[in-house]
């Protein structure tokens, strides 16, 4: 039975069978980088080394964007949130370099080439919000979220007043909320809801600013698939006022 204080989650938590290497990473490596109820949100101690900025990706999918950002920005800390266990497992292979058929080291905590600036929360981000201090995050990525296109499911869309209130609290003033979508319903929804939110301003000055990927973008398989199928993604950056 679901506890009264636990938000109701809509979506999959597990897909097809996870193979041996990924299962081992979930069992032995994930606990070393997993955010728990006792995790202290301190930029000096939370990651492998002190960081000046922290980025949060909500629903990181297969982890390609998160891993790419982490390797490109070793001086920043990254918090990845994903409930889909297969996606979490894939992220672990990307940041450790351990894939199926590759020998697993005796001590899985000693992986010299891994990204040590990633921490993972494998549950609903609305639970994590309670732990994150005010203004702790510099940038939030919400990339290709489930559009819930049917009108009766609109309340399930992540961009909503309640979630924006929490995002406004945890993002520092001047920080960025980035929303990417390839769905026309979610595009219109995001523009309308964000327009009515007094805590954020759209940074776009011309159409190229939202039609083209940002300069720091990491391309994903989902994005490539959307383009192949004729769905052109848009990229909205909103600044925390």
CATH class: Alpha Beta
> pLDDT below 50 for ≥5 consecutive residues: which ranges?
none
In total, the number of domains comes to: 1
What's the CATH H-level superfamily name?
A: Vaccinia Virus protein VP39
Summarize the structure.
It is built from 8 helices and 7 strands. By secondary structure, it is an alpha/beta fold.
How would you characterize the overall build of this protein?
By secondary structure, the protein is an alpha/beta fold. The protein has a single domain, classed as 3-Layer(aba) Sandwich (Rossmann fold), CATH 3.40.50. Helix content is 30%, strand content 18%. The protein contains eight helices and seven strands. The chain has helices at residues 20-33, 64-72, 85-96, 125-128, 161-170, 184-195, 208-211, 221-228; strands at residues 53-58, 76-81, 118-121, 137-143, 171-181, 200-202, 234-240. Strands 3-2-1-4-5-7-6 form a seven-stranded mixed sheet, sandwiched between helices. It starts with 19 loop residues before the first helix and ends with a strand.
What would the keywords be for this entry?
single chain; 241 residues; alpha/beta; Rossmann fold; 8 helices
List the SSEs and their pairings:
Elements lengths: L19 H14 L19 E6 L5 H9 L3 E6 L3 H12 L21 E4 L3 H4 L8 E7 L17 H10 E11 L2 H12 L4 E3 L5 H4 L9 H8 L5 E7 L1
Parallel strand pairs: 1-2, 1-4, 2-3, 4-5
Antiparallel strand pairs: 5-7, 6-7
Helix pairs in contact: 1-3, 2-3
């Amino acid at each position: 039975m679901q506890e009264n204080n636990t938000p109701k989650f809509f979506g999959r938590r597990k897909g097809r069978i996870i193979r041996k290497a990924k299962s081992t990473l979930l069992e032995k490596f994930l606990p070393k980088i997993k955010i728990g109820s006792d995790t202290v949100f301190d930029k000096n101690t939370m990651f492998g080394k002190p960081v000046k900025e922290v980025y949060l990706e909500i629903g990181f999918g297969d982890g390609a964007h998160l891993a790419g950002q982490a390797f490109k920005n070793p001086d920043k800390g990254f918090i990845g949130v994903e409930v889909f266990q297969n996606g979490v497992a894939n992220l672990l292979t990307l940041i450790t370099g351990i894939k199926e058929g590759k020998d697993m080291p005796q001590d899985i905590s000693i992986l010299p080439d891994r990204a040590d600036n990633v921490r993972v929360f494998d549950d609903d981000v609305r639970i994590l919000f309670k732990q994150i201090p005010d203004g702790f995050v510099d940038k939030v990525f919400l990339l290709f979220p489930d559009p819930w296109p049917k009108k009766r499911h609109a309340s399930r869309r992540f961009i909503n007043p309640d979630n924006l209130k929490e995002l406004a609290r945890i993002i520092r003033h001047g920080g960025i909320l980035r929303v990417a979508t390839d769905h026309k319903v979610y595009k219109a929804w995001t523009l309308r809801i964000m327009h009515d939110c007094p805590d954020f301003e759209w940074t776009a000055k011309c159409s190229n600013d939202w039609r083209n990927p940002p300069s720091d973008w990491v391309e994903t398989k989902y994005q490539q698939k959307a383009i192949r199928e004729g769905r052109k993604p848009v990229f909205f950056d909103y600044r925390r006022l």
